[in-house]
Amino acid sequence: MSPTSYRVDALQYCNWSEKIFRQMRDGSVDAVHVTIAYHENFRETVANIEQWNEYFEQFPHLIFHGITGDDVRLARDTNRTAIFYGFQNPSPIEDDIRLVEILHSLGVRFMQLSYNNQSMLATGCYEAEDPGITRMGREVIEEMNRVGLVVDMSHSAERSTLEAIQISARPIVITHANPAFWAPALRNKSNTVLEALAQTGGMMGFSLYPHHLKDKGACTLQSFCEMVAECAGLMGVDNIGLGSDLCQDQPDSVVEWMRVGRWTKKIDFGEGSANNAGFPPMPDWFQGNHHFGNVEQGLREVGFTAEDTAKVMGNNWLRFFDQNFGPED
Question: Looking at residue 70, which CATH number applies to its domain?
Answer without folding.
Answer: 3.20.20.140
